Amino acid sequence: MRPQIVLFGDSITEQSFRSGSWGASLADTYSRKADVLVRGYGGYNTRWALFLLHHLFPIDSTKPPVAVTIFFGANDAALKGRTSDRQHVPVEEYKENLRKIVQHLKECSPTILIVLITPPPIDEEGRKQYAKSVYGDKAMELPERTNEMAGVYARQCVELAKDLGICSIDIWYKMQETEGWQKKFLRFVI
């Protein structure tokens, strides 16, 4: 059996094998060296991800993955009291849930490469326009996600990675370095 790289996350991970997307690029890069498996769950947050850990990454596996990306936070950062309220996870719990996921993976294999990926930035205006085009007058007046709050979660993700001595990719910050990032990197799905 070839080595496995597992992409674990929410809908961004779930859709990562679309043409030109990051999962497809990773699979292409490692096509002769490893199998890249997508374990993305649309709408999931870190709280719900904890329920999947033992099923996806059994402690007694004889062949655990060599690497895992953990890409949650976009749903966790949904604002309390808004339309995506059920997905909201307080930032302290988000950080602790990520810690639990990392600890579980390290129990599966102490040599596993783990990469935490921050939630992406939010194009608030684009999301608002999209909602109005889909829902018309029924569109939400208040945003259910903000870029500022996504940044709070992103910082906690990066801080945790540093604390645990593992790799992280701060896409919240890196994407915003590119002019026009809203249209270049994001597409709207509510």
Automatic annotation (TrEMBL):
Family indicated by similarity: Belongs to the 'GDSL' lipolytic enzyme family.
InterPro entries the record matches: GDSL, Iah1-like, SGNH_hydro_sf
Signal sequence range: none
The protein's name in its UniProt record: SGNH hydrolase-type esterase domain-containing protein
